Amino acid sequence: MKGAVIGCGFFAQNQLEAWRDIDGVEIVALCDQDAERLNASGSAFGVERRYTDAAKMFDEGGFDFVDIATTVGSHRALVEIAAKAGVHIICQKPFAENMADARAMVNAAQTVGKTLMLHENFRWQSPIQAALNIVKSGTIGEPFFGRVSFRSGYDVFSGQPYLAEGKRFIIEDLGIHILDISRAFFGDATQIAATTRRINPNINGEDVATMMLTHENGATSVVDCSYATQRTPETFPQSLLEIDGTLGTLRLDAGYQLTVQTEGETQTDVSPPLLPWAQKPWHNIQESVLTIQQHFVDCINSGRQPETSGADNLKTLALVEAAYMAAEQGCTVSLADV
Ligand code: NAD
Ligand code: 89Y
């Protein structure tokens, strides 16, 4: 399978590393508007075909899929051009700047019968997968309450300066993952309430968000996110879990400690592996990049839809939109209205 990557910035380095680890995949072309970044990645990963114009790269073709690792403003145009070129597509989160763009992107891929997967990797982190497997096995019974929590004081702005500039920050950038984890455990939501705060005076968007979701199956989940939490141990980038089920409880605590209580209690260390190209504390995210990209390849090869397909991710993006509406209006928002 031959692929092309658009966007050779901060996070794409992980995606390029992961592609190198996947059997049967070769990245044959790279694109970035910034020639310096393009050439740095081209040299580091030994990719000769390099483009500063995505349209030109698609015109010349010669690849089966494209991995779009740019920031959100370019996603719709790039997905549409990729669909026109008839290739399978991975697109980074956040999917789009609004629901209309995201729906158009799903339609574009469906029209040409190509796979569109969102690079929604947090649910693929191995500690989260370990917890999901236990909940799906029925060990703690029917889950009726959950808390998915991401609280940190880690400086994400030095690596990703654009995060300080947007009117929106934590829900759109990070909360989107945590909302998606909640969907993975409890299924789709019917309504959401939310509050937001900006604590850091040097950024434009909100850096604290607390959201409460009602799920179709009757479960309630609290999704809380903060980049203004100075604490020890610093848990970046861990998503912590507390899940109450009819037969017991599950907790994923700081340091990747997974505790399951039913009649007895078991505690397991579910720390993610440190891949040869990974660096702590990012290794948790980096491993999930490899896992989700392998999932994309497996889905293409077997004709399945990826778990976080474009169509699926419309529901995660709708939660983001609804959370901003709920926080702004001080009310509960029904997902049917988004
Ligand atoms: P970045 O700004 O460092 O890199 C983006 C690159 O895309 C830049 O080099 C830019 O020149 C290039 N680019 C933009 N538009 C282009 C276009 N039309 N054609 C060609 N090149 C174009 O950004 P980043 O920090 O690498 O983030 C990229 C995306 O990855 C963001 O959407 C971000 O939210 C996401 N991200 C995801 C995770 C995750 O765990 N899934 C983690 C970090 C970032
Ligand atoms: O951009 C974000 C993401 O997707 O994961 C963590 C991050 O890099 C900073 O919040």
TrEMBL record:
This is Putative dehydrogenase. Residues 3-118 form the Gfo/Idh/MocA-like oxidoreductase N-terminal domain. It holds the Pfam family GFO_IDH_MocA_C3. Residues 129-251 form the GFO/IDH/MocA-like oxidoreductase domain. One of its GO terms (molecular function) is nucleotide binding. InterPro entries: Gfo/Idh/MocA-like_OxRdtase_N (IPR000683), Gfo/Idh/MocA_oxidoreduct (IPR051317), GFO_IDH_MocA-like_dom (IPR055170), NAD(P)-bd_dom_sf (IPR036291).
